[in-house]
Design brief:
It contains nine helices and no strands. The chain is an all-alpha fold. Helix 3 packs parallel to helix 7, helix 6 crosses helix 7 and helix 7 crosses helix 8. The relative contact order is 0.09.
């Protein structure tokens, strides 16, 4: 029995090897042309070609820095921290998964930042792509809506930490961005604490009841987890949480 199965495997292997050789020989005989990509630098006297090349590299730079920009200068930090606090309070391990929470945080960020992004597009990106303004002007006009948004949600004492009072009224991004991040961390931890406290009370009540009943071997999480999920669903927790996040930026 064993020898026959081994013989069948050898026959199957040789047949597979034969078809691979046959298929590869057909590919070589057909002389299939594969696409190639070539990057080279050449001399040019056309200003339009130079401008197009510069715009292409600027676009690649923006795409590579997009994750950092989204985290640093938008509402993404506050939203994702609050969502992770919620999952920690529910103690549902990896439910919802990280990809779901990050996707929800991204869509909420785009919703909150859409007026700012629209202003940047109209005042900076669109004129620059049409050749009406220079790179320096596009940077200045694009930074203004972001500065306006960050200043609105940055605490003054956090701003003073990076920008002493003797400086000029013009606040550089190097001082505004870290102050904004600290303020966002503070607001997100405040919202997270308010989320975790009710769940913590449920855990304490369940643990006290189990101890009073002498059920020392029963983990409190087994009883408190369905209660917390049921409570969160009954009060329509996801709707209230997302609504609170959106209202915190209005």
């Amino acid at each position: 029995m064993f020898s026959s199965s081994l013989r069948n495997r050898k026959i199957l292997f040789f047949l597979l090897f034969f078809f691979i050789i046959l298929f590869s020989s057909n590919l070589y005989s057909q002389n299939i042309r594969l696409p190639s990509f070539e990057f080279k630098i050449k001399d040019t006297s056309s200003p339009s070609e130079v401008a197009t090349t510069i715009r292409f590299f600027i676009l690649l730079t923006i795409i590579s820095l997009a994750p950092s920009i989204i985290v640093m200068v938008t509402s993404f930090t506050r939203i994702i921290i609050v969502l992770f606090f919620l999952r920690m309070g529910l103690q549902t391990q990896n439910i919802p998964p990280n990809i779901v929470l990050i996707s929800l945080a991204l869509f909420l960020t785009f919703k909150i930042m859409s007026p700012t992004f629209g202003e940047i597009y109209e005042s900076s990106y669109k004129p620059f792509m049409e050749g009406k303004i220079s790179i320096e002007e596009a940077y200045k006009k694009g930074a203004e809506p972001l500065k306006k948004f960050m200043l609105k949600y940055t605490r003054q004492k956090d701003l003073n930490l990076f920008k002493p009072k003797e400086e000029s009224q013009e606040i550089p991004l190097s001082s505004l961005i870290p102050a904004f991040i600290i303020s966002e961390l503070n607001y997100s931890f405040q919202m997270g604490a308010l989320l975790v406290i009710p769940f913590l009370l449920i855990d304490l009540i369940v643990a006290s009841i189990l101890l009073s009943m002498g059920m020392f071997m029963v983990p409190p999480v087994m009883i408190s987890l369905p209660l917390k999920i049921l409570l969160f669903v009954l009060v329509d927790g996801w709707h209230l949480l997302v609504k609170s996040i959106l209202l915190s930026y209005r």
